[in-house]
Amino acid sequence: MTDHDKDFEIERERYMGHMEYRKTLTSAELEVAGRFTNASLTLAGGALALTITYVEKLHPKLEEMSWGWLAFAWFSLAASLAASLLALLFSLNGTHQAIKNSDLLYNKWVKDKTTPYAAPVNLHSNWTHYCNFISAGGFVLGLAAFFVFVLNSPPTVSQ
Fold this sequence. Notes:
By secondary structure, the chain is mainly α. About 85% of the residues lie in helices and about 0% in strands.
């Protein structure tokens, strides 16, 4: 076995180790992202339902300023839901693109063993992160706006 063959074998083992570790990290990231998106959808949807129920059942005394806070809360919570759904879509597309990229790189390597590993940037992953931040921000802003709305619009006493 020549020095070149030894070097190649060491590089191959390093690459295989890296890919195995990367596979573990990718799997963990997908699981956590899925749980985050699930929680975001559940919480934002529940908060939106809570605000609607509050207005419908407790008939708060609505001041003109209160409508603005309620509209802002609904808009923020709806944006949170939309961003969570977009994050799911980008995550799905990103996973699909990563599989295509991986297959392409492997096929290039099979044809030419000297081909360096250079994974292309997967923009879907970036958009997934942006949507997750928007979702979390929308949820927090929506809850804060609803809290201000409740403070400015106490329930009326039904007779």
